[in-house]
Amino acid sequence: MDRNIEKYRAFVAAADCGNVTRAAASLSVSQSTVSKMISDLEKEWDLTLMLRNRYGVKLTPDGELLLPYVRHLLEDCEKLEEKVTDIRGLSSGIIRIGTFQSIAEHWMPKIIRSFHADYPNIRYELLMGDYDEIENWIEQGRVDCGFLRLPTRPEFDTLFLTDDTYRVVLPKDHPLGRKSAIDPQDLNGLPFLLLEHGGRTEVSELLERYHITPDVHFTTWDDYAIMAMVESGQGVAILPQLILQRIPYDILIRPLSVPAKSRIVLAMKNRKTISKAMAKFLEYLPVREKED
């Protein structure tokens, strides 16, 4: 791959992530590599593309002007690469995936290991984000597919993967820990740590459905921040089971006595137009074509 193409990838990734560290993680390279590639690109073009500060990076007016052109160039390069791959077979190619934290940690390593054993020359780009970001990446063509929880945008093609059951998370010495299952009314009035981001309100909807009125002390989209605060005794929470595997926190996990789950899907803009590599990758996912 031409070095300039790699520089363009670094520039677009940093612009999308707003942070060099996250951009480096998405490209599976070091932070210094991304910084150097962007710096080299700025020297070649004799332009300042990004402003760096302790909070991340921000595009300059020149960077904002050039970003769409660089993005389109990369898309064309990837289409060319995919076409060559289709002609030659799965001897090369790239799969770009948008994912949230629990899937990235507990599913992707095993899936990629199995796929890589059969197709060692396929590369991967994982972009970590929240649901809104992943939906936007799919719509923009930034990723080939993305893991999401239903409901998602109706225009997407989706493949149902699994149900993720919500659990109650308690400090280790909490009185409710003596119960094998937690009734919704048990949470009324308790200090509560709410998992929520923007328009995504799965836990809030669950509270409303079962008429639970806890005393919300803290709201965040970071599962691990909530678990750390629960461990320190600052409240209780409801979290999806998938994120509660192999956790480093000394907390109690109990089921709710009522149904509480979300549906995890793999979403694509159009399944009919995916690359050969992407189509093959789908065979390695635990797809359940019909929901229970």
Walk me through what this model shows.
The protein is of the alpha/beta class and 292 residues long. Strand 1 (50-53) and strand 2 form a beta hairpin. Helix 1 (3-17) crosses helix 3, helix 1 packs across helix 4 and helix 2 packs across helix 3. The chain has ten helices and eleven strands.
A few lines on this structure:
The chain has 292 residues and is of the alpha/beta class.
List keywords for this structure.
single chain, 292 residues, alpha/beta, nine-stranded mixed β-sheet, two-stranded antiparallel ribbon, globular
Low-confidence stretches: none
Beta-strand content? 15-25%
Distance linking N and C termini: 44 Å
Task: State mean pLDDT (0 to 100 scale).
Answer: 89
> Could you say which structural class the secondary elements and strand pairing correspond to?
alpha/beta
How many helices? 10
Order of helices and strands: HHHEEHEHHEHEEEHEHEEEH
Biggest β-sheet: count, sense, barrel? 9 strands, mixed
Helix content: 40-55%
Number of strands: 11
Q: What's the Cα radius of gyration?
A: 21 Å
Write the layout of secondary structure elements.
Blueprint: H1 3-17, H2 20-27, H3 31-45, E1 50-53, E2 56-59, H4 61-88, E3 94-99, H5 101-106, H6 108-118, E4 123-128, H7 131-140, E5 145-149, E6 157-171, E7 191-195, H8 202-209, E8 215-220, H9 223-231, E9 236-240, E10 251-255, E11 261-268, H10 276-282
Parallel strand pairs: 3-4, 3-5, 7-8, 7-9
Antiparallel strand pairs: 1-2, 5-11, 6-9, 6-10, 6-11
Helix pairs in contact: 1-2, 1-3, 1-4, 2-3
